Every structure is written in C-alpha cells, then in structure tokens.
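Preliminary data (for renewal application), iron/sulfur cluster complex.
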Amino acid sequence: MSILSDIWDGVRTTLVGLKITVPYIWKKPVTGMYPHERLDLPERVRNRLYVNMDDCIGCDQCSRACPVNCITIETAKAVDGDSPGVTSNGKKKALWVTRFDIDIAKCCYCGLCTFPCPTECIKMTDVFEFAEQERNNLIYNYITLTPEEVQEKVAMEKAGDAAVLARKTAAKGGAPAPAAAPAAAAPAPAAAAPASAGQKLHVPPGTDPEKAAKIAELQARMAAAAAKRQAESAASKPAAAVVAEAAPEAAAAPVQAAPAAASAEDDPGKEARIAAWKEKIAALKRERGES
Ligand code: SF4
Ligand code: SF4
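Predicted structure:
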C-alpha cells in the first residue's frame, strides 16, 4: 500500500506543478532580448545630464545645488565689444563659460541641479547607456569654446580688470586729496599698464573674420587706453618715475622702492596706502606669472 501511495503522491504533485506551468505555454514570453528589444522608459526618468551651452549664462546655480559637487564651472567676464550672445529667451549673457564639467561617475541622478537653472538649459535625459572602461572618460566637458578661445577670453577679462583698476586709480588720484596722495597713488598705473598694454590677445588660426576684427578693435582700444593712462601718469609723476616706466626691466624696483622712499611723517595714512599698493602690485605680478 505504501508503494501505491508514494506513486500517487508523485503523480499528484506533478499535476499540481503542471497546472501552474502549462498556461504559460500559450502566453507571450516576458524576457526582453536587450539590446535588440528595449522597454519603454517612464516619462520622467532621470538619466544622463544634457546642457545646452547656447543658453547657459554661467550663473553657477546648478553647481551650488549639487549635493555631491560633481559640477565644475569657470567663467570669464565678457569685455565691451565681445558679447557672448543672448539666450533663446532673450536674456543677454555677461559671462563666457570657460569650463563646464560634470563628473557623471559621481552623479547620483537626483536632478537637483535642473531646478534652479534660470534658463532651463540643464536637463536630465533618458540616455542610460554610457558605460566606459576608463573612469576619467565619465567626466563630461560641455563647453563649446576651443582651448585657444578659453585662453583668449581669460586674457581679455584680466586686461579688462586691469583697465578698470587703472581707471579707479586715476579717478582717486584726480579727486581732491592731501598733498601726499598723488605720491602714494603713483605705483598703480605703473603696475597696471603692463598688464593691459602688454596683453596680446591671441587670435586662433581660422577664426571667423568678423570675430578677429572685433578682437583687433579691442586690442587697439586697450592699447589706446594704456597709452592714455601712461600719458596721464607721466604728467602727474616725478621725472624719476617716468624714466622707470620707460625702462620696463627696471620698473619693478622703482615701483617697490617709491613707497619705501616716501616718508610717512607728514601723512599718517600713507603707510597703509603703500601696503595696499604693494599688495595690488604683488597680485598683478602673480597674475602675470612673474612671482
Ligand atoms: S543630478 Fe544631482 S548629483 Fe547629478 S549633477 Fe545634478 S545635482 Fe549633481
Ligand atoms: S544653472 Fe543653468 S545657466 Fe546657470 S550655470 Fe548651471 S546650466 Fe548654466
């Protein structure tokens, strides 16, 4: 009896199993033959990021919103006559975006960077197939400028800053001031002039002629402004300082020696001004890679 019972148990459990399995013989298979067959993704799926650089204004808000700091942005201020253009919604750009990197290997696809963007130019797409053998290949560079153009924009920004600094200095020097003020203000043009007058803007080969003309025009304006500053400076300086400017290799010594030679006895604020100018001169030299 026990043998018959065992046989019946075997047949019964097999039939129970087949009762579940057999209906699937007439159903469609559920296994997708990826990559030949693809499933439809949800409408709001968050995968690889896309940045429309034509609309990016370099405001850095996406980078600040990122919880894992995987967005790196660097910008250069646009100078007069070299506009970065306008966004598709008509907003005038004021900055050149000289670096826009996203380390997509660090990205956690939270989408927080997309919300603060004022021009809605950073978006999450449904692209998910971007595996790489090398981790560094997952650092995406979105800028549209060439390395030469980046160099050029940064140089133009520095030249513009130096010109603004010189204008401010000239404005300060021209205002009514104590008798010792012009002596303290004298080092500024000497330090600022080489940064702008000596700044040769690079025009990469094959540059659009219109753009090249704009750069040339800017270069000419910078040279004219530098010449004007030098003339103003020469008119207001002692002869020794003018001679020092005429010999650039010797200029560093007079620039630093002049404040030291000036006596602070008759002006208690002079030392502070001299220290401030020394700091500015050092900063300009650092920018020019001279120290
Ligand atoms: S999706 Fe999130 S983690 Fe990725 S870049 Fe944007 S803010 Fe950063
Ligand atoms: S928030 Fe938008 S406009 Fe601002 S830097 Fe990021 S991508 Fe560009």
